[in-house]
Amino acid sequence: MSTETLSMTLSIRPATRADLPLIAQFIRDLAEYEKLSHEVRFDEAVLGERLFGARPYAEVLIGEIDGQAQGFALFFHNFSTFEGKPGIYLEDLFVRPEARGSGLGKALLQRLAALAVERDCARLEWWVLDWNAPAIGFYKSLGANPMDEWTTFRVEGDALAKLAGSAA
Fold first, then answer.
1. Active site residues per annotation
2. What are the residue ranges of helices labelled H in the chain?
3. Is the residue at 14 inside a domain?
4. Position 155 in a domain
5. Distance (Å, rounded) from C-alpha 75 to C-alpha 129?
6. By residue range, what is the domain housing residue 152?
7. Residue 1 belongs to a domain
8. What is the distance between the alpha carbons of residues 70 and 99, in angstroms, rounded to a whole number?
9. Parallel, antiparallel or unpaired: strands 124-126 and 10-14
10. Which CATH number covers residue 35?
11. CA dihedral (152, 122, 91, 58) positive or negative
12. Looking at the 3D structure of the chain, how many domains does it have?
């Protein structure tokens, strides 16, 4: 009787412009999972320019299992005035449902942590929806702490235009 060992190769790589359709699909898949598909409004060409143009606003890592893209992390730098150092803000982390439990999500976060250390960042941070108990448990298992004392504010759409119009 023989036992067959299943092994898989996890790899993390920086995204390229050629990955744009894949990134767009990952964003849509994440929005569907988060029940926020109605909020997805990006134009793929504009997204490509913002990620890969002359002044990139964010970076993307692609997570692969056996050479097949199964997840992504989209992130950008912020800055801590108290620390006097940059940080990395993880905007989106998504692993396809069939690849969850493979270690790919952890590998993506480990690579982001390594980038934060390499770039002399003070911290790596992100938001998670309150109802996403599996993600919250996963993040806590990695040593992440919830920042419960902070409230997020947002100005967008007409309110943003009105606020901008009142600038001196």
1. 139
2. 20-33, 44-52, 104-118, 133-141, 157-165
3. yes
4. yes
5. 17
6. 10-165
7. no
8. 6
9. unpaired
10. 3.40.630.30
11. positive
12. 1
The residues near 1 (Cβ < 8 Å, ≥ 6 apart) are: none
Amino acid 147 reads M
Q: Is residue 83 domain-resident?
A: yes
- Per-residue buried b or exposed e for 115-132, using 16+ beta carbons within 10 Å of the residue's own CB: bbeeeebbebbbebeeee
Q: How far is CA 20 from CA 3, 78, 134, in A?
A: 40, 23, 28
Tokens for 91, please give them: 């905007």
156: which 2 tokens?
């967008």
Each residue's pLDDT, cut to its tens digit, for the chain (168 residues) gives 444 446 889 999 999 999 999 999 999 999 999 999 999 999 999 999 999 999 999 999 999 999 999 999 999 999 999 999 999 999 999 999 999 999 999 999 999 999 999 999 999 999 999 999 999 999 999 999 999 899 889 999 999 999 999 765
Cα dihedral sign for 35, 57, 84, 13? positive
Q: Among 119, 151, 132, which Cα is nearest to 93's?
A: 132
